[in-house]
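Structure (tokenized):
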């Protein structure tokens, strides 16, 4: 055991992800993480006071990877309807890619989501806030007619949840899935459109 190792929260989280991939959420322990780091489990607890806090931090780290490309779309130029569609398609594609590229961590995220993990709740709030920003821009541009932007951003999130929530992941390989996404997005965008002035 090497207690001279310089431990950082980021290093612990990297190794915790590897341990979760190997053992799964149910079997992975803080002792497993400490063993992989070649330190005592007390060293891990100095950074994360409980197994639950470590799991929350892993979930947050994993989810935070989705935010940057989506935020670029939120802050980017162009008409709000095109940005909203691009934002939604980017979110769906990122979740689907995570499922195919990292199925073990995806399963871990699903389990954490079912536990109503705080990191997952914060992630959903952040996504809804991003949609709200795009919708507000659309109202200012005259492209959208929306009475309550906050409620509508939540409705957009809820209406598209089967395309990005891991509980629906088994549907994502359906050959008709892309057409279902197209149909829902067309319906949503039509419903948000401001009426044309004559």
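Design, position by position:
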């Amino acid at each position: 055991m090497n207690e001279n190792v310089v431990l950082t929260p980021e290093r612990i989280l990297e190794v915790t992800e590897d341990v979760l991939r190997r053992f799964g959420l149910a079997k992975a322990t803080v002792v497993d993480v400490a063993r992989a780091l070649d330190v005592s489990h007390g060293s891990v607890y100095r950074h994360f006071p409980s197994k639950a806090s470590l799991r929350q931090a892993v979930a947050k780290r994993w989810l935070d990877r989705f935010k940057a490309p989506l935020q670029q779309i939120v802050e980017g130029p162009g008409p709000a309807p095109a940005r909203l569609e691009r934002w939604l398609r980017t979110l769906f594609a990122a979740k689907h890619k995570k499922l195919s590229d990292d199925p073990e961590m995806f399963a871990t995220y699903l389990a954490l989501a079912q536990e109503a993990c705080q990191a997952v709740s914060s992630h959903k709030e952040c996504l809804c806030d991003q949609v709200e920003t795009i919708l507000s821009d659309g109202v200012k541009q005259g492209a959208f007619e929306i009475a309550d932007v906050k409620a509508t951003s939540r409705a957009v999130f809820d209406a598209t949840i089967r395309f990005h929530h891991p509980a629906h992941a088994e549907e994502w390989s359906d050959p008709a899935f892309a057409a279902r996404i197209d149909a829902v997005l067309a319906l949503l965008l039509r419903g948000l459109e401001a009426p044309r002035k004559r």
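Reviewer-requested clarification: The first helix runs from residue 9 to 27. Residues 59-192 form a domain with the Tetracycline Repressor; domain 2 fold (CATH 1.10.357.10).
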